[in-house]
Amino acid sequence: xxxxxxxxxxxxxxxxxxxxxxxxxxxxxxxxxxxxxxxxxxxxxxxxxxxxxxxxxxxxxxxxxxxxxxxxxxxxxxxxxxxxxxxxxxxxxxxxxxxxxxxxxxxxxxxxxxxxxxxxxxxxxxxxxxxxxxxxxxxxxxxxxxxxxxxxxxxxxxxxxxxxxxxxxxxxxxxxxxxxxxxxxxxxxxxxxxxxxxxxxxxxxxxxxxxxxxxxxxxxxxxxxxxxxxxxxxxxxxxxxxxxxxxxxxxxxxxxxxxxxxxxxxxxxxxxxxxxxxxxxxxxxxxxxxxxx
Length: 293
Prior knowledge:
Largest sheet: 5 strands, mixed
Number of domains: 3
CATH class of the largest domain: Alpha Beta
Structural class: alpha/beta
Number of helices: 13
């Protein structure tokens, strides 16, 4: 038995599975004569007749039927194991995040993940408003501000990063604020508002507590538009510093620092279950922020 060619059993199984030599030959892309020869070799090695055949008829003997039933069970187990292996090694991750978070949330980590795990397909869905009811059906991972992730009932929630807020302005407008000592000195200034609703409430509370009032000229949830407006000196913008990190570094935009402690935003990762592929993604994403923030 140790000298048996296992391919012979495979050919026999598929000849029966496809109900004849002709169909098996087409599906396996093997010459019909070759299949017939291999079945004959199997019968010789087993010393049993497995298939009774003539030009038109195809019938299994009792031995042939018993062998097929055993092979069917074996192939079923094999296919299940192969399917589990494929599921572990090939998977799609669907990630949901806000439009304005996506501008910087992944940075180089998404490139590293794809290069490291090319067999895992990443599907990023962007939204402007989180629909909690859709979360279970649409996302494997969700990345959002703390206030919004608190709406999701799950124990699988990790802090990704804390984003520092700041005031920014264009180079010309910033000349008016070169010696700012307090947030109150920014009052009565035109404001480009780039805030999700709940975060906007925190900002308004901060302004109220400091007794200042801004003239809100536009509300926009798109960092590209807000950068255009700021660079053209149309007003101040209170933002996560990360949105304007490059512009601040290269001098296109001026950061206006005040003595008061401004509130920060916490961004969390929420996921349905802790499987191997999700853990791989979260590990690489967290590494990015451990190094940069």
